[in-house]
Design a protein that fits this description.
Helices cover 33% and strands 15% of the residues. The chain starts with 18 loop residues before the first helix and ends in a 5-residue tail after the last helix. The chain has eight helices and four strands, in the order ααβααβαβαβαα. Belongs to the nitroreductase family.
């Protein structure tokens, strides 16, 4: 069964949303032949650049590595668990870094929140452009920080796989089963503490 960006993966929302949000999901099966152009990468990073941030400090940094590069291999090798089983077919891996302190050591307490917004903007832009993303938290951050010589005060928060959706049958079990399982979310009344 080949999955595409349309069809059964659309979110069943309780309110009308824009198409990139309805269509967005996090595949693990990527097309191992699809590539990102320089323009593709620039557009994704430009979307991240225009995310809001506290005091407009923009405390985010990114390492972008396309499949086949030495940097891609370094990032892939630092992934943990099942992430290594599927992420090698993504067109690119993006390391998402929060600048927790400036170069003088002054704290930036909202850095992780701001980075999250930047990555969300990147994700929605990717979906709009016919790409898919998958966020990962399973990685060896210390290994990556050393490999890329990150200064003190920079923290790797997540890694984003980006590419075109591939064939779910290429995944090992149980990932294949998870790839085609129905999408679900908690109901809003479980998420909202109070509404006036």
């Amino acid at each position: 069964m080949t999955l595409t960006a349309t069809g059964p993966r659309h979110a069943d929302t309780d309110a009308p949303l824009i198409a990139p949000l309805i269509e967005r999901w996090s595949p693990r099966a990527y097309d191992p032949t699809a590539e990102l152009t320089d323009a593709d990468v620039r557009t994704l990073l430009e979307a991240a650049r225009w995310a809001p941030s506290a005091m407009n400090l923009q405390p985010w940094r990114f390492i972008v590595a396309r499949r086949g590069s030495e940097s891609f291999t370094l990032i892939h090798d630092a992934l943990m668990g099942f992430n290594q089983a599927w992420a090698d077919s993504a067109a690119a891996l993006i390391v998402n870094i929060a600048e927790l302190t400036d170069e003088d050591g002054k704290p930036r307490p909202w850095a992780k929140y701001d980075l999250g917004q930047a990555v969300a903007h990147l994700t929605v832009q990717a979906q709009h452009d016919g790409l898919h993303t998958h966020q990962m938290g399973g990685f060896d951050g210390a290994r990556l920080a050393e490999a890329f010589d990150l200064r003190e005060g920079l923290e790797i928060v997540s890694i984003t796989a980006v590419g075109k959706v591939g064939d779910a049958s290429s995944l090992p079990e149980p990932l294949r089963e998870r790839e085609v399982a129905p999408r679900s979310r908690k109901p809003l009344d479980e998420l909202v503490i109070t509404a006036a």
